[in-house]
Design brief:
79 residues, 75% helix, flat, mainly alpha, 2 helices, 2 domains
C-alpha cells in the first residue's frame, strides 16, 4: 500500500509535469503566432560556402587528431 506521503509526492510530480507542459505549449503557440505566415522569408545559410568547407576541413582534422592513435592501435591489432 502506498503511503500518504508517497501519494502526495506523486501527485505533486504529476501536477508539476502537467503545469510545465502547459507553459511550454503556450510559449510555443505564442512564438508560432508571432511569426507572420503571410511573409515567408528566404532562408539564408548561416555560413557561406567557403566557411562551410573550412569548417568541414577543421572538423576532419580534429577527428583525425583525436581518434588517429586509436585507429592506429586497432589497425595494428588486426581490426
Amino acid at each position: 500500500m502506498i503511503s500518504v506521503l508517497t501519494q502526495e509526492r506523486l501527485l505533486g510530480a504529476a501536477l508539476g509535469t502537467v503545469l510545465t507542459g502547459v507553459v511550454i505549449f503556450e510559449q510555443r503557440k505564442s512564438i508560432y503566432n508571432s511569426i507572420s505566415p503571410a511573409e515567408p522569408q528566404p532562408r539564408e545559410p548561416i555560413f557561406g560556402r567557403k566557411s562551410r568547407l573550412e569548417l568541414a576541413h577543421l572538423w576532419n582534422k580534429s577527428v583525425d587528431k583525436t581518434f588517429g592513435p586509436l585507429i592506429q592501435f586497432l589497425s595494428s591489432r588486426g581490426w
